[in-house]
Amino acid sequence: MAVKKISWRCIVTSCCITKEETEECRPKKDVTKQISFQRLSLMDLSNPSSTTLSEDLSISLAGSNLCVFTLQELKLITQSFSSSNFLGEGGFGPVHKGFIDDKLRPGLKAQPVAVKLLDLEGMQGHREWLAEVIFLGQLRHPHLVKLIGYCCEDEHRLLVYEYMPRGSLESQLFRRYSATLPWSARMKIALGAAKGLAFLHEAENPVIYRDFKASNILLDSDYTAKLSDFGLAKDGPEGDDTHVSTRVMGTQGYAAPEYIMTGHLTALSDVYSFGVVLLELLTGRKSVDKSRPHREQNLAEWARPMLNDPKKLARVMDPRLEGQYSESGARKAAALAYRCLSHRPKMRPTMSTVVKTLEPLKDFDDIPIGPFVYTVPMEIDPLQKEEGKEKEGKRRNGHRHRSHQLRHGHKHHHQDVRSPNKSPVHSDSAHSGHNHRNGLNYPLRNC
Q: Protein kinase domain location, by residue (predicted)?
């Protein structure tokens, strides 16, 4: 039996398509059985401007185990998208936390979820929503976020994902007033994200992620990294093609220079973006930071020349790590970032090579122990101890004697000679002020 390729006209319909045309392209039962053997591709999209999705989407994705939720169900689990359940907002739209179980629908696994609502006036639209459903509905991997289901009612477009309790790498790495992300967690995140990209690049029908960045890497409770937001993902080149020509899209600071200049997209474009994120993990700096001096605003341009120089590497490492990282691991990770950030795409490693390089780094144990000072108490001879007590007693008696004389207007014959214009107290404060102004040293104080 010949396998018939499904056209996107069966999936995305427009108002001008007639009922007869829709019936004509509706896949037969024997064809839908072949879906698991040939992944649907966005390159089959015949009408990207369409805003209405037919019931054929759920038929075509049969076997993907995606749930088709109603808008009312999603309102119920998010308490009508309450602000108390608000998790954040990106280019797609706001994200709210919810909870699903078999009470909502029989057979559903009880678990928290993240519900992403398409902002109709936002930066992304129906096509990006559809790309997420198509890619994540058919691709499954431990380092890709799991799409549980979607909703398509009238103009409403929603996506339901597994909930990732630690949020994005961006929030963990750059937020203020929080504990620094430890070295071991950074290497684990880099390795997990690399495995996710490698899976996409090496799939039977390769996928170019196109928007690899810190905010699109989500973390679960034990810092397992998962790629999310496939709105800009593209199918890789087919046959003898070396690249995909496309409109330049992505995020400043992460996009590969050759892609920005030519619009030619390859898997090596993703490798460059990975190098930027790896650099962010090493330095604790954002890919683009306008608050820094001009020459340091673009992270890749500023840091790359120093990555292969062990003497200069310490200058780019995240100071918040306070030296608590593997020096040999940092050198290997920096050398890898250097290769990923090459302006010559062919000099960059593949993502499978990146994974092999990072794999041993998570187990490096030459992390220095933090500074710890312990003062050993001196052993005192019993006789010296008694003499010390005797001297201390005399000192205290002398202090009480001097205090008694001062209260009664007497002068002690050991009193220091001072300027007649300054009392002892005034003199001390004057000297203190003078020393402070001239930067002189003071005894350390316990605060």
A: 81-373
Domain count, the chain: 2
Question: Are residues 138 and 181 both part of a single domain?
Answer: no
Sheet with 147-153: strands ordered across: 67-68, 147-153, 156-162, 111-117, 94-100, 86-89
Counts for the chain of helices (H) and strands (E), in that order:
15, 14
Place of tokens 């207007």: 409
pTM: 0.72
Which residue of the set 211, 229, 270, 318 is catalytic? 211
- Domain co-membership, 92 together with 31: yes
In this structure, are 149 and 178 located in the same domain? no
Q: Show the domain range for 128.
A: 9-162
What is the tens place of the pLDDT at every residue in 238-295? 777 778 878 888 899 999 999 999 999 999 999 999 999 999 999 999 999 999 999 9
Same domain, 136 and 175: no
Are 322 and 201 found together in one domain?
yes
Asked about 289 being catalytic, the answer comes back as no
Same domain, 134 and 176: no
Per-residue model confidence as pLDDT tens digits over 153-170: 888 999 999 999 999 999
CATH label of the domain that carries residue 64: 3.30.200.20
Question: Does one domain contain both 66 and 190?
Answer: no
- Own/partner pairs, 3-9, CB within 8 angstroms, 24+ separation: 3/31, 3/34, 3/37, 3/38, 4/31, 4/34, 5/38, 5/44, 6/31, 6/35, 6/40, 6/44, 6/60, 7/44, 7/46, 8/44, 8/45, 8/46, 8/47, 9/46, 9/47
Residues (pLDDT < 50) of the chain are 1-37, 43-52, 54, 372-377, 406-407, 411-447
In order of 153, 202, 339, 351, the CA distances from 198 in angstroms are 35, 6, 16, 5
